[in-house]
């Protein structure tokens, strides 16, 4: 039994080591280069901002608040979608189980009138070939269409954004360390640049953006401000999204809701996954107990 | 070691088949195989690994039904599996985390073999086949990691193919064959997909040989003492070990499920959720955790040795760290199998395990970053003096440094940078990497000659009896 305990301890230690490795790699990761490049590294050594109540969807049994997802989608469609697409999602995904507009009366989300309405009136239309002329035209989206950004291609996007490419937001919370917390912090991290920090034209200082402020900093390099520069101006600066459920519009609320919406969009099966785990793991524990008792009974008369 | 077959065909059809294709006899003998009765839980990882291989093959075949091996579509096709394929998220999470679980189990299995001397006469071929499997696993896992076509997939594969290019003479052509052209692209992705599908079946074939080779001498055991009397020392594999292994497999699956359902991305890297972009290199390229120790050894070599440049030497050290395992049975000169009876070998083995895990941490960290700081950060003023010689002055105080900087002419090109003093990850990986090779090349060969092993039990039956009855004087040293 001594060996058995050692074995389990060893296994646990190895597993712990395995978990620790990637997180260590993230903490000690070198700061990402250049404001424009898309990197997973989030800016700086300081902690991310967190809304009151934290991020319940990240808990073991955490779920999403459907109202919040709807508010978050509204922020996305009224603010973010001016530059960012979510091309890995279709409009129908919004009406699927667990999604912002799921309605039990419409198990097929393509029948959901809210989803149909959203697709048909979405600000970015779908490029299609006009059957009459053969020209490319833009048409209102259908529920099966992808949620596209406004630009015809990446080159057009860069030209219109001072050389920077607005990243697709479908899995942004998986592609940045910190997930929803990173999005939330970035949206609220447009602090006034501290004295001594020069911000180039067309760039904006953000305390949470990945990058390095050293080159633009006059002063003790040990005290350089955290974060970096990005081409995106503060999107919430003039935003005034009216929430349908009457929640007061504040910058924090908009940032919070859109961060949670993007977390859902990045991993829409997370709730189903955790719920299945809550059934699978207790089952396996029970099964292991039964097999362990069989093992004990079987080996009872064998010296080993 | 397998005694005469005890299978008796009972029905007519069994008798008929037994004289034509004795497959039932084969299965029955396999299940009846005499197995030492003192195997501990470290021995259950063979069964766990078999389960891992089956899980990877089954989930992989399903994923291949939905995956598109094309650089324009691969990334989106993987996301489609996660979103639109029924239970695709489950299958992919199992497959992606399954690779990590497979390596976790294989490392435990290998450390077990090393501790109990399972590679020694007469089991050298089992060990060598095992190392072949391990090598193929690394190749398969590496190619599998490229398939989702994320940033880390792409740039990780660029690092590895470049390494192969560093090998003199054959390196460049092999690199071109691997990439299918001058650069990583569609051709690379297609052949990686093809090979990623092929190699697991090669692994399965070698696993058959591994088990066949195991069934000639039979299992080693924690005492390392060979089976003397099949009746007293062994029990039939089934049901004794099917149930014990079964228990361990289920416990292992609990850990597996924890990752699949609650931490599916913990072992991955956020950069791999960004689609591959050849023009944009991630700030910090790291392989998956199970390759990190070898990555650390690769990067530990920062110096040329004679005519061999550092880069090539790093590649040699990295491949050498794996290839050295093939000759381990002949590097360990001790006649005693189990380190239970080799006190000094046991200590250096424990250090070896910590060194290997430590190398993993080194691989995950930037070699130039510090493990710990020995003093507060200082400021270094760098400039060229009037003769054009580069100068470096260290200050604690920013005001002093900037005053000195202002006193210099603009032509001096003065700049102030942070100077951190402490212990670099590079140094740690050099120390641990040196120990890795020292263990195999010096300590193990030497210890076999100079170490005086403790008394071993006369037989397996003896060793288990002593645990339960008061120990006779001669047996005290055994445990």
Describe this structure in words.
The complex is a heterodimer of chains A (304) and B (479). With 304 residues, chain A is mainly alpha-helical. Chain A has a domain at 274-304. Chain A is built from eight helices and six strands; from the N terminus they run ααβαβββαααββαα. In chain A, strands 1-4 form a two-stranded antiparallel ribbon. Chain A has a two-stranded antiparallel sheet with strand order 2-3. In chain A, strands 5-6 form a two-stranded antiparallel ribbon. In chain A, a hairpin with a 6-residue loop joins strand 2 (126-129) and strand 3. In chain A, helix 2 crosses helix 7 (251-266) and helix 6 (180-188) runs antiparallel to helix 7. The longest helix of chain A is centred in the C-terminal third of the chain and has 29 residues, at 270-298. Chain A is globular, with a radius of gyration of 24 Å. Residues 1-8 and 15-36 of chain A have low confidence and may be disordered. Chain B is mainly α and 479 residues long. Chain B folds into two domains: 33-371 and 428-450, Cytochrome Bc1 Complex, Chain C; 378-419. Helix content of chain B is 57%, strand content 6%. In chain B, the strands form three sheets. In chain B, strands 5-4-6 form a three-stranded antiparallel sheet, covered by helices on one side. Chain B has a two-stranded antiparallel ribbon with strand order 1-2. Chain B has a two-stranded antiparallel ribbon with strand order 3-7. In chain B, strand 4 (378-384) and strand 5 (390-395) form a beta hairpin. Chain B is globular.
What shape does the CA trace of chain B take? globular
Query: What class would the helix/strand composition of chain A place it in?
Result: mainly alpha
Secondary structure tally: strands of chain A? 6
**What fraction strand of chain A?**
5-15%
Mean pLDDT of chain B: 93
Helicity level of chain B = 55-70%
**Helix segment count of chain B?**
18
Please give the order of strands in the largest beta sheet of chain B.
5-4-6
Number of strands of chain B: 7
Return the string of H and E elements of chain A: HHEHEEEHHHEEHH
CATH class of the largest domain in chain B: Mainly Alpha
- Quaternary structure annotation: heterodimer
* Contiguous uncertain segments of 5+ residues of chain B: 473-479
């Amino acid at each position: 039994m001594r060996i058995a305990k050692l074995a389990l301890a060893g296994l646990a230690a190895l597993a712990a080591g395995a978990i620790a490795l990637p997180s260590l790699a993230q903490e000690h990761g070198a700061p990402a280069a250049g404001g424009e490049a898309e990197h997973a590294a989030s800016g700086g050594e300081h902690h991310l901002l967190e809304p009151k109540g934290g991020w319940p969807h990240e808990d073991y049994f955490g779920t999403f608040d459907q109202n919040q997802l709807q508010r978050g989608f509204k922020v996305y469609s009224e603010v973010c979608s001016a530059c960012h697409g979510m091309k890995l999602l279709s409009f129908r995904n919004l009406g699927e189980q667990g999604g912002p507009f799921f309605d039990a009366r419409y198990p097929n989300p393509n029948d959901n009138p809210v989803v149909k309405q959203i697709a048909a009136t979405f600000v970015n239309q779908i490029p299609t070939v006009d059957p009459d002329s053969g020209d490319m035209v833009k048409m209102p989206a259908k529920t099966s269409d992808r949620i596209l950004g406004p630009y015809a291609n990446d080159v057009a996007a860069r030209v219109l954004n001072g050389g920077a490419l607005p990243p697709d937001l479908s899995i942004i919370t998986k592609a940045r360390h910190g997930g929803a917390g990173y999005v939330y912090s970035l949206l609220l991290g447009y602090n006034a640049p501290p004295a001594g920090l020069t911000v180039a034209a067309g760039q904006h200082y953000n305390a949470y953006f990945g990058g390095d402020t050293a080159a633009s900093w006059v002063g003790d390099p040990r005290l350089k401000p955290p974060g970096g520069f990005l081409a995106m101006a503060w999107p919430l600066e003039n935003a005034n999204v009216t929430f349908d459920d009457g929640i007061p519009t504040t910058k924090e609320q908009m940032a919070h809701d859109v961060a949670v919406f993007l977390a859902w969009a990045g991993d829409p099966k997370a709730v189903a996954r955790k719920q299945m785990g809550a059934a699978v793991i207790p089952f396996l524990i029970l099964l292991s107990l039964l097999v362990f008792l069989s093992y004990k009974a079987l080996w009872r008369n064998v010296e080993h | 070691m397998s005694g005469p077959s005890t299978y008796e065909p009972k029905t007519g059809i069994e008798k008929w088949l037994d004289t034509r294709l004795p497959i039932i006899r084969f299965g029955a003998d396999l299940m009846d195989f005499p197995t030492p009765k003192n195997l501990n839980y470290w021995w259950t990882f063979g069964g766990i690994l078999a389960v891992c291989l089956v899980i990877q093959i089954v989930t992989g075949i399903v994923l291949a039904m939905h995956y598109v091996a094309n650089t324009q579509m691969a990334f989106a096709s993987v996301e489609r599996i996660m979103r639109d394929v029924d239970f695709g998220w489950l299958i992919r999470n199992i497959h992606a985390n399954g690779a990590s679980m497979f390596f976790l189990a294989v490392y435990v299995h290998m450390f077990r073999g090393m501790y109990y001397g399972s590679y020694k006469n007469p089991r050298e071929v089992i060990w060598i086949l095992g190392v072949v499997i391990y090598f193929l696993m690394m190749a398969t896992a590496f190619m599998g990691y490229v398939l989702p076509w994320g940033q880390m997939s792409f740039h990780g594969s660029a690092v590895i193919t470049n390494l192969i290019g560093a090998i003199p003479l054959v390196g460049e052509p092999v690199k071109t064959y691997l990439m299918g052209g001058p650069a990583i692209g569609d051709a690379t992705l297609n052949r990686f997909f093809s090979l990623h599908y092929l190699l697991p079946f090669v692994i399965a074939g070698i696993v058959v040989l591994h088990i066949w080779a195991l069934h000639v001498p039979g299992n080693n055991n924690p005492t390392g003492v060979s089976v003397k009397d099949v009746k007293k020392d062994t029990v039939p594999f089934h049901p004794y070990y099917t149930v014990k292994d079964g228990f361990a497999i289920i416990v292992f699956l609990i850990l597996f499920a924890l990752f699949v359902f609650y931490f599916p991305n913990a072992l991955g890297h956020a950069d791999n959720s960004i689609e591959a972009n050849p023009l944009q290199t991630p700030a910090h390229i790291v392989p998956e955790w199970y390759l990190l120790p070898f990555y650390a050894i690769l990067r530990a070599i920062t110096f040329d040795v004679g005519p061999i440049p550092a880069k090539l030497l790093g590649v040699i050290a990295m491949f050498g760290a794996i290839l050295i395992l093939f000759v381990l049975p002949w590097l360990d000169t001790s006649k005693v199998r189990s380190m239970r009876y080799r006190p000094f070998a046991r200590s250096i083995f424990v250090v070896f395990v910590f060194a290997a895990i430590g190398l993993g941490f080194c691989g995950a960290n930037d070699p130039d970053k510090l493990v710990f700081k020995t003093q507060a950060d200082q400021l270094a003023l760098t400039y060229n003096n009037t003769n054009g010689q580069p100068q470096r002055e260290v200050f604690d105080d920013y005001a002093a440094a900037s005053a000195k900087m202002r006193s210099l002419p603009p032509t001096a090109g003065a700049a102030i940078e942070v100077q951190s003093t402490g212990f670099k990850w590079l140094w740690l990986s050099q120390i641990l990497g040196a120990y890795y090779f020292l263990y195999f090349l010096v300590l193990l060969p030497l210890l076999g000659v100079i170490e005086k092993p403790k008394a071993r039990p006369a037989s397996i039956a003896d060793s288990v009896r002593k645990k339960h009855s008061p120990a006779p004087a001669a047996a005290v040293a055994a445990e």
